[in-house]
Specification:
Layout: E1 2-6, E2 13-18, H1 25-31, E3 40-45, H2 49-62, E4 67-72, H3 81-93, E5 101-106, H4 108-120, E6 126-131, H5 136-139, E7 144-149, E8 152-159, E9 165-168, H6 177-194, H7 196-204, H8 206-210, H9 214-234, H10 249-258, H11 265-282, H12 287-299, H13 312-319, E10 331-337, E11 340-345, H14 349-361
Parallel strand pairs: 2-9, 3-4, 3-5, 5-6
Antiparallel strand pairs: 1-2, 7-8, 10-11
Helix pairs in contact: 3-4, 6-7, 6-9, 6-11, 7-12, 10-11, 10-13, 11-12, 11-14, 13-14
This protein binds nicotinamide-adenine-dinucleotide, the ligand O=C(O)C(=O)C[C@@H](O)[C@H](O)[C@H](O)COP(=O)(O)O and zinc ion.
């Protein structure tokens, strides 16, 4: 097992990562100040529960924790105010108080939702991330928790850091192949924003990653978590640097919403990252950036074009709700080289629209 730290002063926390570490969960909980008999509410989803809820529950009960469980429907639709309401009811009926702890056992949907329940229940209780997807190497770190509004993704949320991230990689074995690919988009993103050598490594090891080779996966997820931890450690609340983690997300979030979440998060972000590379080339950056980005994402078997049925004007309208846009002015994260990005203001809306159209023609 390896351990990283998200360095945030009194809100610092460990990320434990490794294969076969699940049995260590109670011990690691106790180490971060959540000793038994702290009451726990384990929130998970309907696709994760059949594999992992019972073992996790047995482990925790065996260590003396009183455990309540709640299983939400799997899928993005669960990141909603209705589900928040439902989980608050569960928490109240279980008698959770301000000393209780929520355990988010699942992917980014469970993590974002359960984290937001933790951020808002009784004005904030502690929570722990137990990620079960590749994508969640990103979502479980950094404390962005949220639900969606029908007009915009992640628009109702908070910054609420977990007490610990416990990443037992043996749980990734049951991931459907499409979810494996989707998660690899955020792995690629961490390379593209921060580490050119890691981008090269991902390209050379794409086959191993897609086949869930344990060693390759552990290296990639450790590296991805470490990039995220470094960025969040320098800018917890996205006053500057942290915005780089949004590479591909301005176009990507709009595509996700307009596709009614038919496109998975990583798929939409993959297309968005190709769009950002195209925009960078329009600003005079080296076309090699675009070619490398696209080649890497293709190697990871991710989509690199906008599905032809997506309506460009709806994408443009939805994009205007982006949290980075201020006073109607566009703000984009664009690559300036492989492994390095810049924040660019006032990207002409016409260029963005043309790029989305180009990406559609390439479908
Ligand atoms: N907070 C953040 O910083 C952040 C970062 C990136 C993404 N996100 C959010 O994360 C969400 C996407 O996360 P995701 O891709 O993990 O999606 P997800 O949570 O929906 O999980 C993907 C699918 O895999 C299933 N699943 C999860 N773990 C499994 C396992 N081990 N075995 C079998 N099936 C499993 C889930 O039930 C679901 O059907 C989006 O809502 C996105 O906005 C948040
Ligand atoms: O942690 C961050 O900061 C990120 O931007 C990570 C993204 O991968 C993630 O999708 C995040 O939820 C996007 O945040 P948002 O503030 O643009 O909704
Ligand atoms: Zn993301």
């Amino acid at each position: 097992m390896k351990t990283l730290t998200v360095d945030l002063g009194e809100r610092s926390y460990p990320i434990h990562i490794g294969h076969g570490i699940l049995p260590l969960l109670p011990e690691k909980l106790a180490e971060c100040g959540i000793g038994s008999p702290t009451p726990l509410l384990v929130i998970t989803d309907s696709a994760v529960a059949p594999h992992y809820l019972k073992p996790v529950e047995e482990l925790l009960r065996g260590a003396g924790y009183p455990v309540t469980t709640s299983v939400i429907p799997s899928g993005e639709a669960s990141k909603s105010l209705e589900m928040l309401d439902e989980l608050v009811k569960v928490a109240l009926e279980a008698g959770l108080d301000r000393k209780s702890v929520i355990i988010a056992l699942g992917g980014g949907v469970v993590g974002d939702l359960a984290g937001f329940v933790a951020a808002s229940y009784m004005r904030g209780i502690r929570f722990v991330q137990v990620p079960t997807t590749i994508l969640a190497h990103d979502s479980s770190v950094g404390g962005k928790v949220a639900v969606n509004h029908k007009l915009a993704k992640n628009i109702i949320g908070a910054f609420h850091q977990p007490e610990m991230v416990f990443y037992a990689l043996e749980m990734l074995r049951t991931l459907p192949p499409r979810e494996v690919r989707s998660g690899l988009a955020e792995v690629a993103k961490h390379g593209l924003i921060w580490d050119a050598a890691f981008v090269e490594w991902c390209e050379s090891n794409a086959d191993k990653l897609l086949a869930l080779d344990p060693e390759a996966l552990e290296y990639a997820l450790y590296t991805g978590c470490s990039v995220k931890a470094q960025v969040v450690g320098q800018d917890e609340r996205e006053n500057g640097l942290r915005a780089i983690l949004n590479l591909g997300h301005t176009i990507g979030h709009a595509l996700e919403a307009v596709s009614r979440y038919e496109l998975l998060h990583g798929e939409a972000i993959s297309i968005g990252m190709v769009g950002s590379a195209k925009l960078a080339v329009r600003f005079g950056r080296d076309p090699v950036i675009y070619e490398t980005t696209k080649r890497l994402l293709r190697k990871l078997e991710l989509p690199v074009a906008v599905p032809s049925h997506i309506d460009t004007s709806e994408v443009m309208r939805t994009m205007m709700y982006d949290k980075k846009f201020k006073d109607g002015r566009t703000v984009f994260v664009l690559p300036e080289a492989i492994g390095r990005v810049e924040i660019v203001r006032d990207v002409p809306v016409a260029w963005v629209e043309e790029v989305v159209e180009e990406l559609k023609r390439e479908a």
